[in-house]
């Protein structure tokens, strides 16, 4: 609540067409009478996904050019939140203040939800780059049970990622919880946070992601005569599962691989992105093809016996905070 009150105090301009983060940040820059220049550069997994630094007459936001569209939006809003909230920024991210980063991330969530609501409330406006209108995403209209199953699958992937990559967790005191303040509702706010943290985890897993695993799983799925969408799901799920095992097992990763990452083409809108991640989660836990790939590559990358998917969740998921 404290972060939301601080944002309201700045009286930011309302989002306007085309309802993109870049357009809104330009409007915020005009209100501040100080330019915000956004550039994309290749950044490896050890570097932050974005950072901001101040020049003499304008501010600069640098983003990882390999980010998926929704992750790019979240990262841009996070960095702009640093500027709006008056944080002292450190380009090299040395001695990072976790509380400052947490404030900026909560602010980015609130800004993203506000951007989505503005797009939904304008009749005839272009669809939001953050959130589609209800009923337009994949799986909508397929029934309450299917939607709840998708929510559960997304939750399982999220808890697995939080256990394997704990640095993505947005934890803290409950008085900063923003869910009740979200005009789109707590469930949507939670889904947004889950997808954002999964995006962050996939980027952190980049050094352990191996394209050979993807191609092997792709071939296995094609030999089983699956459709194109299922082939992609199996291949991506296997790549993520093996990357998780590599990290958990302590295998060395390639931090200089800037674009070796799963799901770089995730949809920009939240609902279809969540749906696709839910499909990946289901495949990781239930597909015998993914299990076969993990068994095949597990002993290669760790020098141990073949892996099972159960081992990917050996660490207990951290206790959820209200902000998550």
TrEMBL record:
Species assigned in the record: Micromonospora endolithica
| Residues forming coiled coils | none
The segment annotated Disordered runs over: 123-144
The top of its lineage is:
Bacteria, Bacillati, Actinomycetota, Actinomycetes, Micromonosporales
Q: Which residues form the IrrE N-terminal-like domain?
A: 32-114
Q: Which domain of life is it from?
A: Bacteria
Membrane-spanning residues: none
Write down the Gene3D superfamilies for this protein, in alphabetical order. Answer: 1.10.10.2910
Chain ranges of the DUF6545 domain: 144-285
Pfam family membership, one: DUF6545
**Protein name per the record:** ImmA/IrrE family metallo-endopeptidase
List, alphabetically, the InterPro entries matched: DUF6545 (IPR046675), IrrE_HExxH (IPR010359)
């Amino acid at each position: 609540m404290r972060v939301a009150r601080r944002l309201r105090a700045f009286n930011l301009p309302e989002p306007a067409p085309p309802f993109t983060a870049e357009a809104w940040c330009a409007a915020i820059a005009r209100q501040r009478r100080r330019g915000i220049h956004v550039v994309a550069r290749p950044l490896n997994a050890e570097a932050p996904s974005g950072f901001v630094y101040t020049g003499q007459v304008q501010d600069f936001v640098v983003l990882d050019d390999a980010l998926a569209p929704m992750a790019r939006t979240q990262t841009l809003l996070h960095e702009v939140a640093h500027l709006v909230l008056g944080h002292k920024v450190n380009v090299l991210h040395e001695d990072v203040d976790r509380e400052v980063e947490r404030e900026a991330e909560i602010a980015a969530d609130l800004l993203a939800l506000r951007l989505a609501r503005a797009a939904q409330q304008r009749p005839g406006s272009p669809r939001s780059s953050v959130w589609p209108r209800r009923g337009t995403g994949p799986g909508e209209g397929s029934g309450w049970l299917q939607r709840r199953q998708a929510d559960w699958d997304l939750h399982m992937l999220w808890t697995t990622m939080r256990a394997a990559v704990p640095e993505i967790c947005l934890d803290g005191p409950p008085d900063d919880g923003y869910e009740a303040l979200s005009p789109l509702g707590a469930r949507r706010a939670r889904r947004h946070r889950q997808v954002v943290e999964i995006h962050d985890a996939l980027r952190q897993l980049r050094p352990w992601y191996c394209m050979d695993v993807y191609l092997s799983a792709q071939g296995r799925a094609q030999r089983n005569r699956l459709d194109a969408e299922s082939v992609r799901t199996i291949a991506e799920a296997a790549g993520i599962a093996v990357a998780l095992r590599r990290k958990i097992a302590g295998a060395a990763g390639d931090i200089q691989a800037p674009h070796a990452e799963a799901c770089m083409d995730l949809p920009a809108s939240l609902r279809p992105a969540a749906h696709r991640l839910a499909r990946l989660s289901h495949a990781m836990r239930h597909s015998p093809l993914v299990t076969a790939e993990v068994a095949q590559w597990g002993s290669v990358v760790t020098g141990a016996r073949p892996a099972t998917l159960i081992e990917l969740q050996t660490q207990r998921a951290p206790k959820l905070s209200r902000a998550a």
